[in-house]
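_Full entry_
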Amino acid sequence: MIRATRGVAAAAALLAFASVASGVAYAQPVPPAGPPSPGAPSAAPGSRPGGAELPEGWRLTGAGADRQLVWTSPEPVPMGDSRVAFHAGDRLLGHPVPSRDGRSFRLPLGDTRLTEATGLRVTAAGRRLDAPGPARSARLAPSAPAPSPAAEPGRRVPVAGVDPGMPGRYRTVGGEYELESVRLPGFPEPVEMRATVVGPADAPGKRPVALFLHGRHGTCYTPGTEEVTGDWPCAAGSKPIPSHQGYQRAQRLLASQGYVTLSISANGINGQDFRAEDGGAQARSSLIRRHLARWAAWSADRASAPAAVRSSSTADLSRVLLVGHSRGGEGVNRAAVDSLTPPPADQDGYRGPVRWKILGTVPIGPTIFGNNPAADVPSMTILPGCDGDVSDLQGQNFVDGTRGVSRGAALHSAVYMVGANHNFFNSEWTPGQAQAPAFDDFMSDEQRDPVCSPGTRTRLTAAQQQTAGAAYIAAAARLFVAGDDRARPLLDGTGRRMPSAGPARALNHAVGAHRTPAFVPGSSALTVSGGGRLCAQVAPGSDRACLSGDAGGASPHFAYWDAVPEPGRDAVAMTWSRPGTPVAVRSARPVSLGGSSSLALRVIVPPNTAGTELDVAVTDASGRRAQLGRVRVDGVPGSERTTSYWAREVRVPLSAATRAGLDLKRVAALELTPRGASGRAWLMDAWGWRPGTPAVSPAPAARVDVGRLTVAEGDSGVRTYRVPVRVSGRGSGQVRLFVADPASGEQTSRVVTVRPGRQDIVVPVEVRGNDRFGNDVTHDAFVKAVRGTVVGSHRGGVTVRNDDPMPRVGVTPVADVVTEGAPLVWRVTLSAPADAEISGHIEFLPPADGTELTTADLDPTWLREQLGELPSPPVPLSGIPFGGLNLPVSVPAGATTAEVSLPTARDGVREPVESLRARLITYDAAWEPVPGPEFTGRVRDAA
């Protein structure tokens, strides 16, 4: 028998501040041309696939290739940058497509089988959306923040020798330009070419350029209302949200220092990137490079430029800084990659010459869905400590993901800004400043957060956050573009501050520049002994996991990607219960610290802890040992709702090793000895360090792009296809290839050496034709750079389309006239067996005549399970509010029949014969309901 459960679990406070909307279901076929109609009738939440009851808020619709898993939120989920994700246990099912109302999210299921034990979850950047309460353990108890947010607890941070956040001497001018919209691959609607320009009015010569790109936000609003949509183009009566105008504080600061700045609009991408497997990264790169190409032409021919461009000093396209917020951060990274190694022409929206040079990028609260940072382009990534959108702070991988990939000359810095949220870096996303409706993405609701709720000592105001953001953008420009090494200590873990950033506490660490890899877990062969172990950054539920699920809080370093678990991402976990328990980290081959002045370590300690002390020693290959000194590591302010297990950079001089006669070119082991009574810490890596910023010359690299091939299954025979992979660029290198099993979702991986012009990555897919209706089957593959490579399009595969019609569905009575107390039963029949489960639901309609069956005539225990509560007074079955009573239907694969039952109750009241009229509903390829046959039932009085 089939029964339904109705009701949606409350998402509590998390939904309010999740600020997310999804990208395409990249683990499944590309969805139809648009999201489902918000007015479509819905099947009952709690559908029973194959007899298994789904959790509240979940349902199944459609069949075969049109089979969808649907989750409905009790409130709209605001459009944002992180992706909504469906999980079955620890397995990622995919990223659903949102409906226009922002409440329903649909994911093509293909051959995925769901059971009662599946453990369905909805998350966004690690936060749980379909359950009340915090997504993470509440064991993390925040301590009182330091009185001065700019200072370490008990210590004042020294001021740097330069303050890039101070305004310059040039008068600034501004304006806007709008050009003809452009077509980008995969997007049916044209994308705007619009920008806000702010530059110096009187700076001599050609001036460096800073380009800003906003993230994924609402695209349109209706003035005078709270209505915000993700439509493109905007409907009549609504206006585009001017997100590109939200960085003018930073633009004016840079312009006063002599930079020509432009902030470009990308609403046309935001409104369509649910179609893109990469979430729109390639499209954003194309848009950036189209603007840069125009500026290169205008620089050569000023008379052809728009007035807003002509009003400021001439641009120098050989000195470009890219600043990107949220998905814009991933977009500027991809533009840096694409400017060095061009993408495949059929995927790219810009095909002209590269007449610019990108000297650095500044991702702010970015996504990095592709896990493909530009290793040879310097970067500074701002991680907002109170980010309620990209809350897992996955942008940390713009730093960590560059290790070992190239020569390591480019500096990659992470700036953890305590108290900053996601939205307020953009004034057009900030309440009280924005033209359109705006909100604080970190919303506390009834649960006040001790670190991030407005009014706490650690939470920044919007003005403070925007001031600090502008100052650190200017610091990156000073270092990457102007080449002023005095700005480096503000970004590279040296521990300096600038007064212009105000009270913001901006912690930082870095890799690259004058760092020599010494002990880097995951990229080198290490053994760990004593009070430590080699742990896996991404291994949920495993004893190898660095951070257990009940630890409280989360770590940006351990943010999940497509691969779970993910080989090659390790750290050293240390635990001690008494002082003096050493942890020895030994390299399989001696490492060189020659030429370095210090040993730099990135160490994580639990949030809100202070004064963790570690003695640091090294041993060379001949066994000589030297005690280098003692370091102190303080935790980052955090709560159970923040991602605050973040590594602090500490350094110890190597002078003691030199005095002891160690051979620093052959160091064999690192020893860390905790001095506290008990505690925990994690070593991310250790490097030889010396001051300075080297020149960066991109190394020859092979570029890998994975595509997607869609084929029909055919009626007979066996054919073998290959996942399309293109290798371009120069030289050879290595990538890690992941292949997902389409049925189980389990992943296998291997390291592959690639070279342009060769078919080194071969993923065969065998397709067997048949003439039975079934699901589409998606075979996914994705890659990650390991060494000497860059990755453009990281994910693709082969999608096998079902090309057989769905069997006809009928309904016949089994017991359609019963005495009260007995169940009404109907049989759903298929005209032929199918290779896929056939799902739908039954809805109730007013009968043509007679007395309609009411909720009082049904078994009350059963009905309460379906509706959550019994209607009072009773109502006719066709008049049940809030979506009504819908009976889900599921015919298992290979079967041709299933029964649907409606239990009635004896009420002891004399009544005439009561009746019902019902209709079977299935779904078409566009997810629209298709009315099926109608049928009736009658219930006689027991008296």
Observations:
- Residues 281-300 form the longest helix (20 residues).
- The chain has ten helices and 50 strands.
